[in-house]
Design brief:
Elements (H helix, E strand, L loop, with lengths): L9 H17 L4 H15 L5 E8 L2 E12 L4 E2 L11 H17 L2
Antiparallel strand pairs: 1-2, 2-3
């Protein structure tokens, strides 16, 4: 069952998942058992999202790498941790975020 309003945006889910991911990385939780219910609920609330993949990385080590949903709807190909996605315009926001993080790191 979806706990969010039907008019919520994918951006809101992305922010929630990123914030939740940051909390998980900072702790010693079982990543898959903690992340799975959140992503499953997000995908139920946003049925137009056919698939996604997630990676939790800490100190250069992948703690979780998993795919959800379908990469190809026509052929029923599942998303895996190796699925490549076209990022389109989101690269601008990701690049800006990485630049800010780099500037913060270099100022310390």
């Amino acid at each position: 069952m979806c706990k969010m309003a039907a008019d919520s945006t994918s951006l809101l889910w992305l922010v929630i998942l990123l914030a939740y991911g940051a909390l998980i990385v900072a702790s010693d939780l079982n990543y898959e058992n903690t992340v799975d219910p959140v992503i499953t609920q997000a995908m139920q609330c946003r049925p137009r999202i056919p698939g996604l993949s997630i990676a939790v990385v800490k100190d250069g080590k992948a703690l979780l790498s998993k795919g959800y949903g379908l990469a190809d709807l026509q052929n029923g190909t599942p998303v895996t941790e190796f699925t490549l996605f076209r990022l389109a315009s989101i690269t601008k926001a990701v690049s800006a975020t990485l630049l800010v993080k780099l500037l913060q790191h270099s100022s310390k």
